[in-house]
Amino acid sequence: MNDPETTLDTRFSAPDAEPTTWQATQAVLENAQITWLTTVRADGRPHVTPLVAVWLDGALHFTTGPEEQKAVNLAANPNVVLTTGSDTWDEGLDVVVEGEARRVTAREALERLAAAWRTKWDGQWQYEVGDGAFRNDIGGPALVFAVDPAKVLAFGKGRFSQTRHVPR
Length: 168
Description:
The chain is of the alpha+beta class.
């Protein structure tokens, strides 16, 4: 998502609040060490799990094994919410991304994403690309998904604000 429409929701913001810029919101997505993924099980129950996500080319990306609950849920319903921020009350910025997860299988895209993952956590995330997925020495394939944001919410703390970013 580039140059989204940005609006402040004054109902949930301090009287003197300003909308959070897209640049500040994007910086949180780029720098987050942990992101929480919410998917929906086939019976409608939510499933939430922490993971390492990568912001690249206007989308948030994550991985999962083909047998993991995340992958099972996504096969039935691609709608997800990704959340990151901090557990403080009076400072920081929490960000929520809503959208549909789509599988990434193109080798060139996977190579670029593997390089981006290597920048996370001092290079601890090392992936090779093969057969439309990531490979590593931990186990089987890691499926890669991209979420093009349908909506991004930024919750400023301290001087409270709720900002909405949507694609133009």
